User: What shape does this take?
Amino acid sequence: MSLLKLHLLGSPVLRQRSPELAGVDPETQRLIDDMFETMDAAKGVGLAANQVGVAQRVAVIDADGERFAMVNPVLVTTEGRATAEEGCLSIPDVFGDVARPERVVLEALDREGRPFRKEVGGLIARAIQHELDHLDGILFLDHLSPLRRQMLLARWRKEHKDDPSYLKDVEPETSRSG
Assistant: This one.
């Protein structure tokens, strides 16, 4: 397994709609493993393939004690509405309140290519929707009011005006002793 570079706001792949995969092969499984490792090192709760520069409908989640990969994910139903603060590994240190359905039913393929269905709510439902948005080229900023989005984007541009690329290295977690 290896850590992948994160693509940051401004990288064209973040605005692409990722195509479905024909199935899960060893290359897809390796991507999933690398995405889990990258997400863990970056301390995220979810990561979509296009956030690591791969335009494929693959994402991983680790939230509220559930850890799973989703290939070709589809929301079957949604229910309710809740607003909560969201952030994104591709837009570090930027946060905003986003309204999303409170509960979802998800269908996808797992890491082994087996179909599964999940009914979830809370943080897991929010993380799934956030990552599915990524797979469609949508960022959480797109859900904010125009004024709030403009303010956050202006701050982002000011803080990153000297950054030469849209890539960020993820550092491996170091073990702590006593």
About this structure: Strands lie at 6-7, 46-48, 58-63, 66-79, 82-88, 91-100, 103-109, 115-121, 167-168. Residues 148 and 154 are 10 Å apart (CA to CA).
